[in-house]
Design brief:
alpha+beta, two-stranded antiparallel sheet, membrane, 134 residues, Roadblock/LAMTOR2_dom, 37% helix, Beta-Lactamase
């Protein structure tokens, strides 16, 4: 899938404004990479595919909370060596970030929320029919 050039500078801004950021990926809910910064396309595709499963699991967990409407807002996973963040970013789109363990977690969450608020409409992925965007 082609990189969305209009998002390149926005993703770069996020990565450069939060020290320790490794990868920034925008993906559709079905796990297709829409844009990336700081990572090779193969790595971004792998992260996007994994995120499809994560967001699906998060929706199941959200359903436990009556006021959530089954919607996931943000998921944070801590692993040895770093953190992984997944945030809903528009209808059918998500923002994923991998960062080293020295990252300021509060700053990362704030910058991700700011980015989604600024460009949420640009991060929307249209529904697909037979593998094609409609």
């Amino acid at each position: 899938m082609a990189q969305r050039a209009d998002m390149d500078w926005m993703l770069r801004d996020l990565a450069e404004s939060v020290p320790e950021t490794r990868h920034v990926v925008v993906l559709s809910s079905d796990g297709l990479r829409m844009a990336q910064h700081g990572t090779e396309p193969d790595t971004a595709d792998r992260l996007a595919a994994a995120c499809a499963g994560l967001q699906s699991l998060a929706k199941s967990i959200a359903s436990v909370f009556p006021d959530s409407n089954g919607k996931m807002r943000m998921l944070v996973i801590e692993v040895s060596g770093g953190f992984f963040y997944l945030m809903a970013a528009g209808a059918g789109a998500y923002l994923a970030v991998a960062a080293d363990e020295g990252v300021d977690a509060g700053l990362m969450g704030q910058r991700m929320r700011d980015l989604v608020a600024r460009i949420g409409a640009h991060l929307t992925s249209p529904p697909r029919s037979d593998g094609q965007a409609i």
